[in-house]
Amino acid sequence: MSLLATATPTISAHFSAPLVPSSHAHRRSVAAPLRRIRRPRLVTVVASVPDPAAGPVEYTPWLIAGLGNPGNKYYGTRHNVGFEMVDRIAREEGITMNTIQSKSLLGVGSIGEVPVLLVKPQSYMNYSGEAIGPLAAYYQVPLRHVLLVYDDMSLPNGVLRIQRKGGHGRHNGLQNVIEQLDGRREFPRLSIGIGNPPGKMDTRAFLLQKFSSEERVQIDTALEQGVDAVRTLVLKGFSGSIERFNLVQKYKFHRV
Known about the structure:
GO molecular function: peptidyl-tRNA hydrolase activity
Number of strands: 9
Largest sheet: 7 strands, mixed
Family: Belongs to the PTH family.
Structural class: alpha/beta
Protein name: Peptidyl-tRNA hydrolase
CATH topology: Rossmann fold
Keywords: Transit peptide
Mean pLDDT: 80
Strand content: 15-25%
């Protein structure tokens, strides 16, 4: 089954059916408000079309996955900003994260008229690919529409960057995703800068540390800007707007 569906004119884009498990997609019961995935039904996307005579419209869905660790212990830590970005997108777009499938917490909805699948892997950071790989394969989402969101120590705190593709940069979660995608790296990513450990501080301790009050302000601002950037990417692709976004982000803390 594919998330890609033919659109019918006149109504805003939406999914009309719950997610469906596959033989490769783990399913389990959870307490309310999470819901179990039930029997197969066809997913339909309908959208407004200026000229009904123009014929059917197809929207290629996006899978947007934030990397992080599940549990309150890791909430608000540097390594979990990917989760925070997905939560922020879900809130802004009115998408409820209430489905468990393939070791992930999912939310199904749309950005504009484009269907999106929001994903928070529950397999822990270093095994993120075990959740994302099967989901991308099961819903037949092309790699060019699999957006990974994760923390990046190579960027200053609160600085964002969107790329069409790239390596793993020694990020264990990203590396595992690449491994589960048979070594392919041609998927977009939104990296969120968290800065470097000060002095001789252990990297793991730094990643699992919460932000200072000043850093928190920068991250919250970055999350707001990230939602706008993701919306632009989903609706317009890698346009000049994304290039300008990256340039502004690169120099946003530089003082003239």
